[in-house]
Amino acid sequence: MNVTSQIPFPSNLITTVTGYYSDSKLKSEGHGSVFTTLAIVWFSVVLIGSPTLKWIQQRWKAWGYLFGGPAMIQEAFAKANGKPFEVVSQETRHIFISSPTEIKQLLSSPSEDLSFYAAARYLAQPQYTMHNFNWLDHEGVTAMGKAKSEGGGFTKAVRVCLTNNLSRVLPSLGHIVEKEVEAMLHEHKIVDGVRQSPIHEMITRLVVLCNIRAIFGAELATNETFVKAAQAYIEQTILGSEAIRIMPHWFQPVIGRIVPRWMTAQHVVYATLLPIVQERLKERELPLAEQPQHADCIQWVIDCSTSLVQQKGQSSGIGAERAVHELMAIWFGSVHAVAAVVTFAIEDLCLHQEYIAPLRQEIDAQFEGFKRAGQPSGLPLLDSFIKESARLAPNEALSTRRAALKPLSFTDSSNKTWHLAKGDWLCTPLWALNMSDQIYTNPEKFDGFRFVPSEVLKAISESSPKTKPAQSKPGKIYDTDYEWLMFGIGKQACPGRFYATATFKLIIATIVRKYDLRMVKPGVKRWWTMESALVPREVGIVFTEREDR
Question: Distance of CA 304 to CAs 155, 158, 297, 311, Å?
Answer without folding.
Answer: 9, 10, 10, 11
